[in-house]
Amino acid sequence: MVTTEESGSRARTRQAILQAAIEVLSRNPAASLAEIATAAGVGRTTLHRYFAERSDLLAGVVAEGVTRLNRATRRARLDSGSGAEALHRLCAEYFELGDLLSLIFADPQLVADPAWATEVCDDDFHGVVARGHADGSIDPALPSTWLQSVLWAQLYAGWSYLAEHDVSRHEVLGLVTRTVAGAVALRR
């Protein structure tokens, strides 16, 4: 019989391994499982009990990434305010995912996983843009697929800028959201 405490401990260990994998792989996509185990504060045998192969760990990272992106999408309250306001909140929430975004940018093969295409906020994003087109807060000449690329490009630019310059996360988030807001605004 498994107790709640054991289940909680097991869940915390699994989460520590996934967090370490996201952090380590975001800096070095070729990092070894031993490096990830060390960063998680567990031995390799413990890591292998949770993730038998590297591919299992990467699948776990993809699932965790989808979960985190979906949580960020919910926190952005995409159904509130104008389309541009919702997009601004989504940009801010995604920016806070830091190491996960860095990993996505460092290893784009991860987003080739079908889970990204089916479970991350594409429909919600397209709905926000459609609402922005209708309420006049997003330029209707800009298709949602284009704006989705713009958002991801700006998030990448923001995290790259943060890594290369002596600036605060808050300052960079301001630059990213201001750039996205200017990019989507209706031209008069």
UniProtKB/TrEMBL annotation:
| Lineage top rank: taxon | Bacteria
Q: Which Pfam families match?
A: TetR_N
DNA bind region: 32-51
Going by the UniProt record, its keywords in alphabetical order are:
DNA-binding, Transcription, Transcription regulation
**Protein's name in the database:** DNA-binding transcriptional regulator, AcrR family
- This chain's source organism reads Micromonospora phaseoli
* Residue ranges of domain HTH tetR-type in the record: 11-69
A molecular function (GO) held by this record is:
transcription cis-regulatory region binding
